[in-house]
Description:
The protein starts with a helix and ends in a 10-residue tail after the last helix. The protein is α/β, with parallel strands linked by helices. Strands 1, 2, 3, 4, 5, 6, 7 and 8 form an eight-stranded mixed β-sheet that branches. The chain contains 16 helices and eight strands. It has helices at 5-8, 11-33, 36-41, 82-96, 102-118, 127-143, 162-178, 193-196, 221-228, 233-236, 243-247, 251-268, 286-304, 308-328, 340-350, 421-432; strands at 62-72, 153-158, 183-187, 332-338, 379-387, 396-401, 404-406, 419-420.
Amino acid sequence: MKIYRPLLIAAVVWTCMLAVQACGDRQKELPAAVDAEWNKDAGLDGLYDMSPKASTPAPRGYEAVYISHYGRHGSRYAYTPKTYRIPLELLREGAAEDNLTPRGKKLYEDLEAFWEKGQYLVGDLSPLGWQQHQYIAETMVKSFPKAFGKGSSVDACSSAAVRSIMSMTSCCTAISRVAPKCEVYAHSGIMDIQATRPNHGGVNPFRYVGPDQPLPFDETPEEFFVRLMPDYSKILARIFKDPGACIKGRRLNGYGGIFFYYYMLVAGMQSIPAEQQIDVSGLVTPDEFKILSEVDNYERFREFFNYKTPCSSIVDDMIAKADARLEAGSRGADLRFGHDHVLLTLLMIMDIEDFGHVPEDVDSLDEWFRCYCSPMAANIQFVFYTPRGKRSGDVLVKILLNGEEVRIKQVETVSGPYYKWEDVKAWFNSRTALFVYRNNNQ
């Protein structure tokens, strides 16, 4: 897929833009209307914070010239049909057996009506997801205008998922609009997999190999769930007259078979257009939602833990492309679009804000590994600064996570959040060496 600026305004793009416009101010106000703590506990289904962020001025004589970026797709419908189908099947069974409470009957009616069209929207980018990447692109250009001026170029690549391709398209469209002198090129293919979704099982001929990394905790997510929420049946009792009847031997008290999807149903509803949303209020209390969030966080940690080896290829890609740009004196950005599991794995590999730390106690894991750091449209940006004019000096870089300045605590800064690129690069190379076999040293 090759997209130059004139071709970005394609029919599919206009369709999405019109969908966003149709949503109007209701969608724009949605992030502000969502309770901050609830949004945090929504974890991977949290909404991107589109409020202004503080920015530390660059050291004197320096200007931003280049950005290296990895971004998650924006808000979407649930990524798996099971998020809607499993709860719906339980409700259908409950209705057939006269086992639904009044609240359960209302949820059943709403979800049945939603499923009629929702089954064809699974995984699709929502209008809010398009808007999020428009905002991120506009903020990038506004914050670092010198990087997107005359003679600059943007190279963007995406995983094969349509929601990622559409997120890339949204971002590139916005850059072309607000930085018309910047050349924009976008593509998606197997040759991009090492920069976008290298952990994709079975379809990556370039996949890295590395040492085994045993999981640090033996407790299963199901056991973790039951320990944290032994009275989980009270949640089901709001919907089912006899909660035990709906579990019926589903895997270990129903975490994997019920609550994994129940949590995503509730958490993800805020990403879709308001007129399509189901009323999920009151299905769980804030305290229960927090526990479900902690269990989901543990589930994701176990799932993503061994992605550090394949995803190290993205770190290598960032280093190689940044060095090539800097050597050539090229301005612009390299943008990569993919998924939450990749972004969280990058945070572990790079150990940004101590993300790579594994505590001894599993109950404190969510203080270190934090799914809420990868909401919809989450992104990591490495902003590179060089001395103005032809002055000599070190290349500096600062790191933004969802627009916030963040740190690598093991690397010394030059000033504020600004690091020498050579120091950061050395740190990244030392980190990927832990997870990847290099030079046939196996």
